[in-house]
Amino acid sequence: MEYRNRERLEEAYDSGKGIIFSFWHGDLFGAACAGAGENKRRRIYILTSKSRDGELLTRFLHKIGFGTVRGSSSKGALGGFLNLHDKLKTGENTALTLDGPRGPRYDAKPGAILLAKTSGAIIIPGALHYSLKVTLKSWDRCEIPLPFCRCDVRIGSPVIVAKNADRKEMEMIRKSLEKQLREIKGAQA
Description:
Strand order of the largest sheet: 1-9-6-2-5-3-4
Number of domains: 1
């Protein structure tokens, strides 16, 4: 794995604030691999849905050492949000997909922005690119890296949301985060 702009992540760690790792749903498997080292540094809790697929993902993530919080925009949204907020307040890090659990693909939902506003955490966007991969035919075009491939982890600019940000400001930040993540992924609007 090669990291681009890793210094952005180091600055976020140095701030002492919680980190919200954010990425597209299609990068979930690669993000788990890339995040394994970060998880050893400071535990990461990943938001997983309450669906049957979410249960399988939760088991996989537990086996490789991550914590999980169950809930999504469609089921258990408030409980999932509050659990992530509590993890950030106790010094843990979190991760979530901006366009999950059902899409549309590459359309960021506002959850990460609200979580950053209420917790004071920093959003670190990231995208993955592989030299060899399989792309599934699912809604998110999930990419699974193949063994021995080169993985390029691109870290975006940190996003900070002021505690007093109003709805208009939060929407502007959401659009900006979506644009940035699309750009580092190389995704079309």
